[in-house]
């Protein structure tokens, strides 16, 4: 079982109600420290975009990657700007809508372009604008096909054989090419990493351009299972540093090395706390129902992702005894609202101590793509988020109300 501070979580659950997200600031700071060898750590805020988390990142010197107008607004609200050689915000996407185009131009936010049209649309209104090129190197790798962001089946980045068109547009509009970027997916292993580093060296040399920076993208995995493998960040850095050195030798000057993790920085900090509300046997399956649904934590339903769980008694002590194979389900009116399932929806029961109404279920490692992927499905309001920082706990998002949802429709 993963470690859990039961009494603290239960006291927060009683104070703010369930379901509830909690984040441990110390874990985030520890993960940031593990990547300090990189020149720039750029947090992929899609993983967890709460402005209080972004402020915590900023206080540690971490920059951000934004992928939408909303995420740019969040970064600005958290005090980031795009000034200087290592701008606080970079915008990464495969298209630019008019409103986002206006915003990146207004704030001088560098654009990491995933399509030639982005370069054209930006160049027309903002000659000299700083750009990165996101390259699809022709291969990718993900923890699920849905998170593989390279190769022919991925919509992301500019296909490596079509870069000449991008360079021509950069010249035509006098855009300022900062660097090349590759993010081939989430859950990249060392074998693929070697291939990405090789592809980066090849593309820099083939470009015939002078570049200031390269970005390693994100994709660093975390051990979701108790016995899961923990990434060796020193080894990860050494592979990229060797690539950077070869690029520096080729260009004849220093090159900035950026990394763009989402999950690695926040996943292990976040826990979803829910209350057990019902149990039932359906044929050979024993279901344990909690008050969190896939609208709160979508990863199991979307990718068949594994999240470890802890079952706590009403007073917060870990439950023991009476273990049985249990399917953990939520309240949504949809059969896929099950937290213990594999890719494709196969139900995978988990050995749990005997559960009772009033127990608590804690889902581990939900800090990345948990709250940020939640929805209002079944008209369920977004749930509170609490930041635990040393001895202090702080509400960083209150619970949404149904009245707020209905207000949107008062038109
Ligand atoms: N950079 C870019 C351009 C990305 O598209 C992503 C993730 C990242 C960085 C950060 O990837 P990470 O280090 O977090 O693996 N919802 C899925 C993950 C989708 C990731 C999309 N892009 C999940 O829950 O696993």
UniProtKB/TrEMBL annotation:
Q: Which GO terms describe its molecular function?
A: diaminopimelate decarboxylase activity
> Any idea which residues bear N6-(pyridoxal phosphate)lysine here?
46
Can you state which reaction this protein catalyses?
meso-2,6-diaminopimelate + H(+) = L-lysine + CO2
The record's section on SUPFAM superfamilies has: Alanine racemase C-terminal domain-like, PLP-binding barrel
Record's family? Belongs to the Orn/Lys/Arg decarboxylase class-II family. LysA subfamily.
Q: Which NCBIfam families does this chain map to?
A: lysA (TIGR01048)
What does the record give as cofactor? pyridoxal 5'-phosphate
Residues forming the Orn/DAP/Arg decarboxylase 2 N-terminal domain are 35-267
Chain residues that bind substrate: 263, 299, 303, 334, 369
Question: What organism is the protein native to?
Answer: Jeongeupia naejangsanensis
Q: Which HAMAP family does the protein's record reference? A: LysA
* UniProt EC number: 4.1.1.20
Instruction: Please give the function described in this protein's UniProt entry.
Output: Specifically catalyzes the decarboxylation of meso-diaminopimelate (meso-DAP) to L-lysine.
Q: Which terms are listed as keywords in the entry?
A: Amino-acid biosynthesis, Decarboxylase, Lyase, Lysine biosynthesis, Pyridoxal phosphate
Protein's name in the database: Diaminopimelate decarboxylase
Which pathway features in its UniProt record? Amino-acid biosynthesis; L-lysine biosynthesis via DAP pathway; L-lysine from DL-2,6-diaminopimelate: step 1/1
List the CDD domains.
PLPDE_III_DapDC (cd06828)
Q: How does it assemble?
A: Homodimer.
Q: Where does pyridoxal 5'-phosphate bind?
A: 219, 260-263, 369
Gene transcribed to yield this protein: lysA
């Amino acid at each position: 079982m993963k470690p859990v501070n039961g009494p603290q979580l239960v006291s927060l659950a009683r104070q703010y109600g369930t379901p509830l997200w909690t984040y441990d600031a110390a874990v985030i700071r520890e993960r940031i420290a593990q990547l300090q060898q990189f020149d720039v750590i750029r947090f992929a805020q899609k993983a967890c975009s709460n402005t209080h988390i972004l402020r915590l990142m900023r206080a540690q010197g971490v920059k951000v990657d934004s992928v939408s107008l909303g995420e740019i607004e969040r970064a600005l609200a958290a005090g980031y700007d795009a000034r200087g050689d290592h701008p606080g915000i970079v915008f990464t996407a495969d298209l630019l809508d008019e409103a986002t185009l206006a915003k990146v131009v207004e704030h001088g936010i560098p654009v990491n372009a995933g399509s030639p049209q982005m370069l054209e649309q930006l160049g027309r209104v903002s000659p000299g604008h700083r750009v990165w090129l996101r390259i699809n190197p022709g291969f990718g790798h993900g923890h699920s096909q849905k998170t593989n962001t390279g190769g022919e089946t991925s919509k992301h980045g500019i296909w490596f054989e079509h870069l000449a068109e991008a360079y021509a547009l950069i010249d035509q509009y006098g855009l300022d090419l900062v660097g090349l970027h590759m993010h081939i997916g989430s859950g990249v292993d060392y074998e693929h990493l070697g291939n990405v580093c090789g592809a980066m060296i090849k593309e820099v040399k083939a470009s015939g351009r002078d570049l200031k920076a390269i970005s390693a993208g994100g994709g660093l995995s975390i051990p979701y299972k108790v016995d899961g493998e923990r990434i060796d960040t020193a080894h990860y850095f050494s592979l990229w540093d060797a690539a950077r050195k070869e690029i520096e030798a080729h260009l004849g000057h220093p090159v900035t090395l950026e990394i763009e993790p989402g999950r690695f920085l926040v996943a292990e900090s976040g826990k979803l706390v829910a209350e057990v509300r019902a149990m039932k046997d359906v044929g050979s399956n024993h279901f344990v129902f909690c008050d969190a649904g896939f609208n709160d934590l979508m990863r199991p339903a979307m990718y068949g992702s594994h999240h470890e769980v802890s079952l706590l008694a009403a007073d917060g002590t870990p439950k023991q005894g009476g273990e049985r194979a249990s399917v953990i389900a939520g309240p949504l009116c949809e059969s896929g609202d099950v937290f213990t399932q594999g890719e494709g929806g196969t139900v995978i029961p988990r050995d749990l101590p005997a559960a009772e109404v009033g127990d608590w279920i804690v889902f581990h490692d939900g800090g990345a793509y948990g709250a940020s992927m939640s929805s209002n499905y079944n008209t369920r309001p977004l749930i509170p988020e609490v930041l635990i920082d040393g001895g202090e706990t702080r509400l960083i998002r209150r619970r949404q109300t149904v009245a707020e949802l209905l207000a949107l429709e008062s038109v």
